[in-house]
Amino acid sequence: MHILLERPHSTKMPQNKIHTNPSIKNFSGSALPPFTFSLRTIACERHPTRNEDSVLVDERTGLVAVFDGVGGSAAGEIASQTAHYAALQQWRRRLRQSQPGRKVLTIPEASAQANFCGLLEELIYDADDQVRTEGARRAGTDDLATTVALAVISRQARTGHYTLYYAHVGDSRIYLAREKEPMQRLTKDDGLLAKLVENRIIDEENALRIDQAQTAGQLSDTELSYFRLRGGITQALGGPLPPTIHIDEISIQPGDRVLLCTDGIHDNLTDEEIEHILRSTPRDTTARELVRHSLNRSHESRSTTIRAKPDDMSAVVITCRF
């Protein structure tokens, strides 16, 4: 079993205001792809001036990612920011090669020569290398790491349809809410519950039940201990071992909503609550509502819910309008 990487949190509760980033503006103009990107990220109230999450949204080229830094103090923030910058720069370098002469880079078109899964792997391995080298130099320690959930949109030239290619390492997640279908969790966490399933200590059904519990009464004492340790991740970028990158693809349809989020969202909210918010809020405020509900949950008494967890909270929602 890989070593679990716990995210340490300060025990102090400063009274400063939480720093927030505004939502990303919608696409406008007929020449731009028909997607709306909604973004919200806030720092944990226990360290309101230091957000260890980092959110990447490159609207015109269809690259989206969330990173959740591990390591505490400044190291977690440096890890997530370093991975963010590395992935964006490598993505733009590759697009310049495939779109020579263009002043403005755009969402790439799929072709027989395009290997987007290989490209995602390249982006993440490069980010991992940068966290181990440049990130460690900046932080003054090699005890830093970050999760990643990353997605790119590609247009099929002949049909005009779009494909979402996505990858992740750690426990930042990607969800798909499609009309008239149950919401799908597209990623599986690299965490304690997955290891328990892999080692046949529990099965997937019970792992999901434990992960989605809201009160202690829903779990046995052993299951409650698993729940409380579920934030331990088994791998990350910059971690003690090179990451195993999980990569897949899915066609996206009009009306689809794709969510990328850090564990500050999905630890506080159940999948059912996330789905309700994705389906019931305007497309340009969905990320803000997810963070608001997560923040409210983090303030609830531990006697009311076992999900309450102060943390950095980040969400990006892509709404497909074509």
List the SSEs and their pairings:
Elements: E1 35-42, E2 53-58, E3 63-70, H1 73-98, E4 109-110, H2 116-139, E5 145-156, E6 162-169, E7 173-177, E8 184-185, H3 192-198, H4 204-211, H5 221-228, E9 246-252, E10 257-261, H6 263-266, H7 271-280, H8 286-298, E11 313-320
Parallel strand pairs: 4-5
Antiparallel strand pairs: 1-11, 2-3, 3-5, 5-6, 6-9, 7-8, 7-10, 10-11
Helix pairs in contact: 1-2, 3-4
Describe, in plain words, how this protein is organized in 3D.
This is Protein serine/threonine phosphatase. GO terms for molecular function: protein serine/threonine phosphatase activity. InterPro entries: PP2C, PPM-type-like_dom_sf, PPM-type_phosphatase-like_dom. The chain contains eight helices and eleven strands. The strands form two sheets. Strands 2, 3, 4, 5, 6 and 9 form a six-stranded mixed sheet that branches. The protein is of the alpha+beta class. Helices cover 31% and strands 22% of the residues. Helix 1 packs antiparallel against helix 2 and helix 3 packs antiparallel against helix 4. It is globular, with a radius of gyration of 19 Å. It has two domains: 247 residues, 4-Layer Sandwich (Phosphatase 2c, domain 1); 39 residues, no CATH class.
